[in-house]
Amino acid sequence: MRRAGLLGVLTAGLVTMFATISAWAEALPSFAANGTLTVCTNPTLPPMTFVNGAEASALAGFDVDLVREIAGVWNLRPDIVQMDFEGMFPSLSAGRCGMVISGVMRQATRERNFDAIPYYESSMVVIARTGTPKISSFSELSGQTVAIETGTSYGRLIDIENTALAAHGKPPIRVQLYPSEDQVIQQVLLGRAHAAMSQDVEVLYRRQQLGGKVTTIFKPDIPDFHDFAIYIRKDAVDKARLEHAVEELRRRGTLTALAHKWNIGDTLEETAPARGAPSRFDVQTFLSALTSRAFFKGAAMTLIMALLSHVTAIAISIPIALALNGRRSLIHPVLSAYVAVFRGAPTLLQLLFIWNALPQFLPVFRESWFTPFLAAWISLSINESAYQVEINRAALRAVDRGQSLAAEALGMKKSHVYWHIVFPQALRIALPPTINDFISLLKTTSLASVISLQELLAVTQIQVARTFQFTEYYSAALVWYLGIVFFFLYVQNRIERRFTWADRDKAAAHDA
Description:
By secondary structure, this protein is of the alpha/beta class. It has 3 domains: about 130 residues, D-Maltodextrin-Binding Protein, domain 2 (3-Layer(aba) Sandwich), CATH 3.40.190; about 100 residues, D-Maltodextrin-Binding Protein, domain 2 (3-Layer(aba) Sandwich); about 230 residues, MetI-like fold. It has 19 helices and 13 strands. It holds the Pfam family BPD_transp_1. One of its GO terms (biological process) is amino acid transport.
């Protein structure tokens, strides 16, 4: 009887455990895969989401904490992916992440394609330098320049207002677009823009950071700009589960606690102490950035990406150049189209297509193996190979055809002719434009930040958004870029000296 009782208790316990596990599994949203909650964010909007330290991985802010709390409700591990603002929603559509949370307002236009779950009340504001007169409507910005972040919906509001202004014969509001919020506010401080559009939660943070140099001049009451929201792909069940998780955190008082932690409550705005913003070049900050691990890792990523992409491009371009320089065949139009398409299409468009559009056609590219590094490598290699084809074709054609004919007449194999006669001379001709192309590619790698690759410029922008010390961090990035470029210019010079013998003019002068 004891054994039977013990077996019964054990059976009941197992049933309860499996029922609990089953209920827990059913409560998880479909975008939670392998015990991980993947979230896209653009960490340039403090205090909602930003990098709080020298390392790019040191994410902080209200939204970052909220992601961790939601993951805790579901017993998942949070994986927060940093990327450019413009890349977040395409990445969400492609299944790169399950949620987007980055201080994004809930709006009807976005809800046509995504589900939005509000989590904190906010509003859009117009800010300007302290001392600028307040306004009571957008129409008072007629003829003025307003800075906004690329990818946000502020431009739509200005378009509507400009239509009304045109109907009354008034000059339109001029718009300047910038890739990040810190750059938007910098234009106001420099006087390039009369005002900027942002969220009210950012104003206090910027006032503290800049010593009270900016202030709110207009706070319109627009329904589409009342709430921050988490965005997910359209799914009624997932939406209900996420709403339940957010409501559970609200019931526990977690959202209120996070608001106090990050000082975004209305009652805290007047009592928060202001911090002075440095107005001169801070040598200590510059040196700290220059020698920081974050900048070293960013520069290493830039260099590795450029080297791998260029070597791959050369490997792709040589057989194509040989084929295009050879006898005309059926493959010629295909190869010519390849060169024309990838030379003509913008590099940024190619990056976004491979990262965001390709997974929609081929789901295999949604898997974790297809990383931003791999996507950038493929994109830049293909793009660069199209330019390298033309360099190699011109170099191969510049080698006197008579030398090849003479070598073949002496019985040399065609492969030996190319290896010992054609390629050494073509290399000497192709080397300067190839090195120049590589230097250009070094700078082009900065575009990969839109697909969350943490290269040098992306690291710089993140640190600028955190500190607002543009000059110091941009100067540090400039030193790193120049150091890399000058090194390769030195290598180019040394290689050119090594292959001087391949230059017929110099060889003739030496014999004389």
